[in-house]
Amino acid sequence: MFENFTFDFLMQRMLQRVQSFDSAIDTSEGSVIYNSLAACAWELAENYIDMDTILNMAFADTAPRDELIRIVQEYGLEPKPATKAILKGEFNIDIPLMSRFSLGALSYISIEKISTGTYKMECEIAGAEANTNLGPLTSIEFIEGLETASLTELLIPGLDEEGTEAFRERFRNYMKNPSQDGNLTQYEQWANEYPGVGRSKIFPLWNGGNTVKVAITNTDYLPAGSTLISEFQEYIDPGIEGKGNGAAPIGSKVTVTGGTQKNISVSGNVILAEGYTSTEGVYEAIKEYLASITFLKNSVSYMRLGSTILDCPSIADTNNLVINGGVVDIVLNGDEIPVLTSLNLVVTG
């Protein structure tokens, strides 16, 4: 809005104003009038820069993080905080709760017994770093009889603090689609804001009147695990009773599922780009594409997937591309979640 109010623009306008009063006044560079106005124009230009910055801070679509948080707090929303990962720990004996272990640079604490020798282990540091940290544990405290200890499975992913642009986009969606009175948008909000949930899909009246099914993914947009499903079920409608003991209103019987995995296999021939010796980055790119459409699109696009492969720097060309044995879009029904289970690309050049 104020980007045109530069030093040169202001200086020219002020000099013209002086000359409009008396054209005989010396306004050349170095004159008393010029030097006096130059100092003023410089300060004014700085003020206009500050005004432009302040103006951007006042609107959610341009505000920096701190100001964005203050704006959005007026609507009752805040960035999702970082959460701690919970993993499955397996031991040769039962261990005391609150026992501490380490793996690499991270430490874990036993918070709940699952079964004999199996516990929920919570990372002591919030964030996503622990999500892939599996392997043998080292006991920080002496536990008599302990011989083996390891983290074997991620139960609930840890999350980093919500990023600025993700928070901004969530606020935009909140304003465009108000959630209230148990409408579909509110069910989506309950699910998508729950720690560990990546995305959700709501199925009203899925099993008759007053029933709702909520299918959820984890933060990698893969089918949610049993622990996350049970914890979110307890949060939204304990026991699927519709008694209003959770977030859902009275009379609404909510069933939480982790979605149904739809296996996606991809094969074909590729020609590598110059300087590459492998199909580097293709697997990750396809996974990212599938994650981007989970619960948002009703099919895996044959053309879009092919384009995803061609967009990889390591690939110069592709042919004979086949998805699930065919050359057509793969339909996603209901709560199906596309998961890449097989990738076989033959390098032909």
What does this structure look like?
With 349 residues, this protein is an alpha+beta fold. It has 4 domains: 7-57; 86-156, no CATH class; 177-257; 260-347. 30% of the residues lie in helices and 26% in strands. It contains 8 helices and 15 strands. Strands 5-7-1-4-3-2-6 form a 7-stranded antiparallel sheet. It has a 3-stranded mixed sheet with strand order 8-9-10. Strands 13-11-15 form a 3-stranded mixed sheet, covered by helices on one side. Strand 9, helix 6 (226-236) and strand 10 (253-257) form a beta-alpha-beta unit. The protein starts with 6 loop residues before the first helix and ends with a strand. The mean pLDDT is 93.
Summary, kept brief:
With 349 residues, the protein is of the alpha+beta class. It contains eight helices and 15 strands.
